[in-house]
Design goal:
The protein is of the alpha/beta class. It is built from seven helices and six strands. Helix 4 packs across helix 6, helix 5 crosses helix 6 and helix 6 crosses helix 7.
């Protein structure tokens, strides 16, 4: 199997995981970035307050998303981009939780996406003082990007996995997970997919 996956990153308006206000997506085929997409999202009602802490992190304010597509309006586009790919994210638990919670808040049925965490991959691949995304991405050869821009963050995640797979001699995300004693997980059953003893 080739090294195919989609890297994803969400920014949120507040501490609610359902408050997605931006998404970045990067499609990788055979270890190369072949498509990117990113857009603003109007968070679901009841999860749409922009807290100052979050705004300080990503710079997105309520007026920025006033005319953006709602979660429901953009959901099919997001799922079409991701297809049946394994999703890669830095701290994947956070991003997959945003995907699930925003879907639940709007009555959408979220596909049971498999995922691989680039933070865990970085910890197993590099010897660093910090594994924050900018530091890990720099170790993977992807430096000087706009951290907390969802598309830039997704691109950085993709590079970490591409570089780590090359270093491990892994031909796909499952082989990479195996080589690093990690798992490709599903939200419904995190310990089922390709568990490594």
């Amino acid at each position: 199997m080739p090294l195919d996956f989609t890297a994803i990153d969400f920014e949120t308006a507040n501490s609610s995981p359902a408050s997605a206000c931006s998404v970045g997506l990067v499609r990788v085929r055979d270890g190369r970035v072949v498509a990117t997409a990113g857009w603003l999202i109007r968070p679901p009602a009841g999860h749409d307050e922009f807290q100052e802490w979050n705004v300080k992190i990503h710079g997105i304010r309520a007026h920025d998303v006033r005319d953006a597509a709602t979660w429901i309006q953009q959901f099919d586009r997001l799922c079409a981009f991701a297809g049946a790919d394994v999703l890669v994210a830095h701290n994947a638990g956070f991003d997959l939780n945003v995907l699930r919670r925003a879907s639940e808040a709007t009555g959408q049925s979220c596909p049971p996406y498999r995922s691989l965490c680039s933070l865990q991959v970085a910890r197993k691949t590099y010897d660093l003082d910090s594994y924050r995304l900018p530091v890990a991405a720099a170790a993977a050869g992807f430096a000087e990007f706009s951290h907390h821009d969802a598309l830039a963050d997704a691109r950085a995640c993709a590079q970490i996995v591409i570089d780590s797979a090359a270093r491990a001699g892994a031909t796909d995300v499952f082989a990479l997970a195996d080589a690093l004693s990690l798992r490709v997980t599903t939200p419904a059953a995190p310990s089922v997919e390709r568990a490594v003893a």
